[in-house]
Specification:
The complex is a heterodimer.
Chain A (H helix, E strand, L loop, with lengths): L3 E12 L2 E13 L4 E5 L6 H8 L7 E6 L2 E2 L7 E4 L11 H12 L3 H14 L15 H13 L5 E5 L7 H17 L3 E6 L2 H7 L2 E6 L4 E7 L14 H16 L7
Parallel strand pairs in A: 3-8, 3-9, 6-7, 7-8
Antiparallel strand pairs in A: 1-2, 1-4, 4-5, 9-10
Chain B lengths: L1 H46 L10 H10 L1 H35 L1 H15 L3 H12 L4 H23 L4 H9 L4 H38 L5 H10 L3 H29 L7
Classes of the chains: A alpha/beta, B mainly alpha.
Chain lengths: ~260, ~270
């Protein structure tokens, strides 16, 4: 099922100047296999929201349900990709991809086969025995995506995964990700500060604004799939982008209702 | 993409060839400079007629090295034994202790500050006390070596074990990895390059520690030999002992560098 239900979620941090609200009153329901992007300026709490969903941090207040059950510890069913690939430099590409399988104690032969399959999907067949330092940034990030998918999670959390890459690699990886998602459906929650990327990838864009971090607007993206690069120049795309820009920069919005 | 990578690899191997060439040149340069300095020393010592008991010529030192070969080897082995034993003991205790400090907030707040305070006590000053407490055998020397090595190794190890990037820790946590899994698969390998930095610092301290231990009270070892030959104005022998000590120290340092290359091939070369 893997429906994620969030209600009245809040996260505050203690700081030198008192409590800081990172996230206030977030209400959001994410359907199974939905591709959600969280977009907003830095400090809008989008990464905080992602970490809350991964149960990496605890909410200060509010409700966070996964399939109707409260989420208190990291669900096994989640894969994570960060801005940096954070690969283990002493492990080969293949062994890096296999790390979660080892920790979870999955069947070795099956995991190996799946790792090879995933590496093939992202165009890294033949690179299994290479070491991270021998790969470009884009290739490292592809490896980290394979690592996140090795245990076949039903939820994929991505925290600005392409932000450190050059524009071309970024587009390339975006399309690769959608291709994988098309063949192997998952719930994807993808954080970005790039509005174009957010629209191009998503079923729904959750636009967030700052101080305190909150959902300003949720935009349904009705562009047909598979998405193509020319869609970026369609009037529909521009209208999405204008809507999102307006709420992010000018604070107009309906709070996602 | 494949073409890109192949291109990238070629570039790296070109760089490697270039760097090995430049390092060969650096070694040659250093050797020539060293030989020139020794020659200059020989010339000046002879030219100014400096008495041998004050500053022996390099040739006199070479003669002493040959003449006292057996004695030098015997004393070197004693010092080597003390150094390696103290060093090994230090590794055996400080690395597990560093792991404990990293994993336990209580230890971090209790033992660690005490260690830091203890580090400020000059170990040279403790050597006579150690002799007082545990006698004049090999044990107090090993103890001094242990003490001087302990701190650099524990600090380097604790730093290394804590150097896991935050996103990686989150990834591991999301998989509900056990503390043991995290330690073996992530923390310890991450710490390896740091540990070797600590070991390299420690091994140079170790030799100094052993010699200090021998200075305080001993009947063998290179420190003893230096002390005795100096007091008897056999300065060339003292220098010969010094040369042995230096060679030993350099050999142990590069021994560790060698082990590091094998154990931590991903570490940046220093």
């Amino acid at each position: 099922m893997n429906k994620i239900h969030i209600e009245g979620l809040e996260k505050t941090y203690a700081s030198r100047v008192g409590r800081v609200t990172a996230l206030a009153q977030v209400n959001l329901t994410i359907q199974q296999n939905e591709f959600i992007t969280l977009v907003g300026p830095s400090g809008c709490g989008k990464s905080t929201l992602l970490k809350l969903i991964g149960a990496l941090i605890r909410p200060s207040r509010g409700l966070l349900l996964l399939d109707g059950a409260a989420l208190t510890r990291p669900p096994r069913d989640v894969g994570i990709v960060f801005q940096e690939a954070v690969l283990l430099e002493w492990r080969s590409v293949l062994d890096n991809v296999l790390l979660p399988a080892e920790i979870l104690g999955l069947d070795k032969t099956k995991a190996r086969a799946r790792a090879m399959h995933l590496l093939g999907l992202v165009g890294l067949a033949g690179f299994e025995r290479r070491f991270p330092r021998e790969l470009s940034g884009g290739m490292q990030q592809r490896v980290s995506i394979c690592r996140a998918l090795i245990h076949n999670p039903s939820i994929l959390l991505m925290d600005e995964p392409f932000a450190a890459l050059d524009a071309m690699t970024r587009e390339e990886l975006g399309f690769e990700l959608m291709r994988i998602w098309d063949t192997d459906k998952k719930t994807v929650i993808f954080v970005t500060h790039n509005i174009t990327e957010a629209i191009l990838l998503a079923d729904r864009v959750v636009a967030m604004s700052r101080r305190p971090g909150r959902i300003a607007k949720i935009v349904d993206i009705e562009l047909p799939r598979p998405r193509t690069i020319d869609m970026e120049f369609s009037p529909q795309f521009k209208s999405y982008s204008d809507q999102i820009r307006a709420v992010i920069y000018h604070g107009e919005g309906d709070g996602g209702r | 993409m494949t073409a890109q990578l192949i291109h990238g690899t070629t570039e790296t191997s070109d760089q490697a060839a270039e760097s090995s060439e430049s390092s060969a040149r650096a070694i040659l340069g250093a050797t020539l400079t060293f030989l020139a300095l020794v020659a200059l020393w020989e010339l000046l010592a002879r030219g100014f007629n400096i008495p041998g008991w004050l500053l022996p010529t390099p040739s006199a030192i070479a003669i002493a090295l040959a003449e006292w070969r057996d004695e030098l080897v015997r004393h070197s082995l004693v010092t080597l034994y003390e150094t390696l034993l103290g060093f090994a003991l230090s590794i055996a205790i400080s690395i597990p202790l560093a792991a404990a400090v990293v994993h336990s907030a209580i230890l971090r707040n209790t033992i660690y500050p005490i260690l830091l305070t203890f580090q400020s006590v000059p170990k040279v000053a403790i050597a006579p006390l150690l002799a007082l407490w545990i006698g004049f055998g090999m044990l107090p020397k090993i103890a001094v070596v242990f003490l001087v090595c302990f701190f650099p190794i524990i600090v380097a190890t604790a730093t290394g074990l804590s150097a896991v990037p935050a996103p990686l820790m989150e990834l591991i946590r999301s998989l509900s990895a056990s503390t043991m899994q995290t330690f073996i698969k992530i923390r310890f390998p991450t710490a390896m390059p740091y540990i070797f930095v600590g070991l390299k610092v420690a091994i140079t301290f170790a030799v100094i520690g052993a010699v200090i231990g021998e200075f305080v009270g001993s009947e063998d070892g290179l420190g003893y030999l230096i002390l005795v030959s100096t007091s008897q104005s056999r300065t060339p022998l003292a220098f010969a002992a010094l040369v042995s000590l230096t060679v030993m120290s350099i050999a142990m340092y590069y021994g560790i560098v060698f082990i590091e290359r094998i154990a931590v091939p991903w570490a940046p070369k220093t």
